TrEMBL record:
Source organism of the structure: Rhododendron griersonianum
Top-level taxon in the UniProt lineage: Eukaryota
Name of the protein: Molybdate transporter 1
Single annotated GO MF: molybdate ion transmembrane transporter activity
Presence of the UniProt keyword Repeat in the record: no
Keywords: Membrane, Transmembrane, Transmembrane helix
Transmembrane segments: 72-92, 168-188, 250-271, 292-314
Pfam families, per database record: MFS_MOT1
Keyword Phosphoprotein: no
Region entry Disordered, spans: 1-22
Biased composition (Polar residues): 1-16
Length: 316
């Protein structure tokens, strides 16, 4: 009897441990997009492409540092973060360049210092955010029929079809090798500069901007910079990106917003006013950049140098 009643009793089951569901929906799509945007297309080619815009970046940054005492360490840190973020967002070698008109005025005008330059960058950034959020420039690229020279000479595989030696030479990371050679030569010419390195980031401070600095920054910096940035940093970049990377188009509104955010965040803390540029995109593409990983590598290098050596790098 006892055995019969025992058989009739339902079996007690242990509570099931539910497995954690995988990430799905919007977060998963964002993660997958970032992974795809930062994917290595070719290790050496992406590294080589990262050097493609340094010919613009290094001279202007060093000139501002030497002439106007720009905080080089802060600029390296912020521009490094900009490179990583824009690479993750757009998935193309989107460059981060100095705002050339503002930089030119700062270098040549003795009355236009760092406060004026930062004011110009902040005001330009605010205007670009307004433009991007209102979509005022979203259709501007439809008016541009002729694109800028994109520097596209074809993939490296086309080079050296006839001669094996030419193919081998063309496959080498030439821009990266030349950059390393330049660093080595600079150290050889002045070995004492290595002793002058100070480890650690430069102090980051909020820039004090007077009313007169806001005025001069807007008149001398923002007004001449706006047409240059709208054409080169937004319209030309979007057009060139669609030509070089079909299917990975970037909108003019989003590029305007990223330009604005970069300057609204960094310029308050002394980072150089920045924008994108078609010339930088063409240069990085020419040397092998094919994804956001290209500029993310450059950004990681800038960030590391800014955190480890700071402004002492200017002595090189």
């Amino acid at each position: 009897m006892d055995s019969q009643t025992h058989q009739n009793q339902p079996l007690q089951t242990l509570p099931e441990t539910t497995a954690r569901p995988p990430i799905s929906g919007f977060p998963a799509s964002v993660v997958n997009r970032v992974k795809n945007n930062l994917l290595f297309r070719s290790k050496w080619a992406e590294l080589n492409g990262a050097m493609g815009d340094l010919g613009t970046y290094i001279p202007i940054v060093l000139a501002l540092t030497l002439a106007k005492d720009l905080n080089l360490g802060t600029t390296l840190i912020f521009t490094g973060v900009y490179n990583i973020v824009t690479g993750a967002i757009y998935g193309v070698p989107m460059p981060v360049q100095p705002m050339k008109s503002i930089a030119a005025v700062a270098i040549t005008d003795p009355d236009f210092g760092i406060p004026e330059a930062m004011a110009a960058g902040i005001l330009t950034g605010a205007i670009f955010i307004f433009i991007g959020c209102h979509g005022a420039d979203a259709t501007c690229d439809d008016e541009i029929e002729e694109r800028e020279s994109d520097g596209n000479l074809g993939d490296r595989e086309r080079v050296g079809k006839r001669r094996k030696l030419t193919k081998i030479v063309a496959s080498l990371p030439s821009a990266f090798n030349i950059f390393l050679l330049g660093v080595v030569l600079a150290i050889i010419r002045g070995p004492k500069v290595v002793k002058g390195f100070k480890f650690g980031p430069s102090p980051i401070e909020i820039v004090k901007i007077s009313k007169n600095a806001w005025k001069d920054g807007f008149i001398k910096g923002t007004i001449p910079q706006l047409p240059l940035s709208i054409l080169n940093s937004v319209i030309a970049v979007c057009k060139l990106s669609s030509d070089l990377f079909p299917g990975r188009d970037v909108s003019a509104a989003s590029v305007s917003v990223t330009v604005g955010v970069m300057n609204l965040v960094g310029c308050w803390l002394g980072a150089m006013p920045c924008c994108h540029g078609a010339g930088g995109l063409a240069g990085q593409y020419k040397f092998g950049g094919r994804s956001g990983c290209c500029v993310a590598l450059l950004g990681a290098a800038k960030l590391g140098l800014g955190l480890v050596l700071g402004s002492s790098l200017v002595k090189v």
